Amino acid sequence: MKSKLVIAGILILAIAVVAAYFLFFSNQPGAGNYTVSCNAQSIPCTGNNDCSVSSMSSFCSPGAPNLLKCVNASYYCGIDGFCKGSDCTVQ
Predict the structure, then answer these.
(1) pLDDT: is 10 or 60 the higher one?
(2) Based on the domain organization, do 50 and 76 belong to the same domain?
(3) Tens digit of pLDDT for each residue in 25-65?
(4) What does pLDDT average to over the chain?
(5) Is the pTM of this model over 0.85?
(6) Are both 21 and 43 inside the same structural domain?
(7) Are residues 65 and 42 in the same domain?
(8) Does position 80 have pLDDT exceeding 80, yes or no?
(9) Are residues 20 and 38 in the same domain?
(10) 75 φ/ψ angles, rounded to the nearest 5 degrees
């Protein structure tokens, strides 16, 4: 009986740690990827060239894409067909 409670406690703790990671850290700059958007819509792509800053800016004209302002930002075409940004480690 005691071992089942220990296993259940460990499982609950593991779930809590994973949930906390996704809630608090996965959307932070440098901790994950985000979908680049503009004019209230995501920017579609068929390859990484579609996600260059100039291509995304052209798609958003008039307006500008929501790019992170940092030294190491990079942009690529995600598997869902929309431009993504990542690797923003210096703000």
Answers:
(1) 60
(2) yes
(3) 444 444 457 888 998 899 999 999 999 989 999 999 888 89
(4) 73
(5) no
(6) no
(7) yes
(8) yes
(9) no
(10) -130, 145
How many other C-beta atoms are found inside a 10 Å radius of the C-beta of residue 60? 17
> Is the distance from CB of 72 to CB of 87 less than 8 angstroms?
yes
Containing domain of residue 55, as a range?
A: 33-91
- Give the H/E segment covering residue 53: helix 53-60
Q: How many domains does the chain have?
A: 2
Q: Give 3-39 as a 3 state SS string.
A: HHHHHHHHHHHHHHHHHHHHHHCCCCCCCCCEECEEC
Same domain, yes or no: 15 and 59? no
Do 26 and 51 fall into the same domain? no
- Residue 57 is classified by DSSP as H
